[in-house]
Amino acid sequence: xxxxxxxxxxxxxxxxxxxxxxxxxxxxxxxxxxxxxxxxxxxxxxxxxxxxxxxxxxxxxxxxxxxxxxxxxxxxxxxxxxxxxxxxxxxxxxxxxxxxxxxxxxxxxxxxxxxxxxxxxxxxxxxxxxxxxx
Length: 134
Prior knowledge:
Strand order of the largest sheet: 4-3-2-5-6
Number of strands: 7
Number of helices: 4
Radius of gyration: 28 Å
Structural class: alpha/beta
Order of helices and strands: HHEEEEHEHEE
Largest sheet: 5 strands, mixed
């Protein structure tokens, strides 16, 4: 006795995964290329520890004060006397906040002078960057 196979059984009814894989990879490439990456400061600063944090979503200017009390804006040094004019030029009259990324070893007097110069430039929202105490 001979068993016959139907013509319909010869072609299996499988799903071709190639178009699905292509779409997934295209979406992956799209998300990687459109993701915005925050530029980290290249100046080495050890931040002080705080129990609470306040994260801002606004446009911010980052002023860095390293352990030798040098002031940096956009990876260039700024003298303390020109800090207010440099911040004023960056802010340009917009309601922008400034984050002071200060090393924990600098004196509080230096930090206060930096914050005063930023406020003289017309910036109302000044914050000091800290790291969580985890």
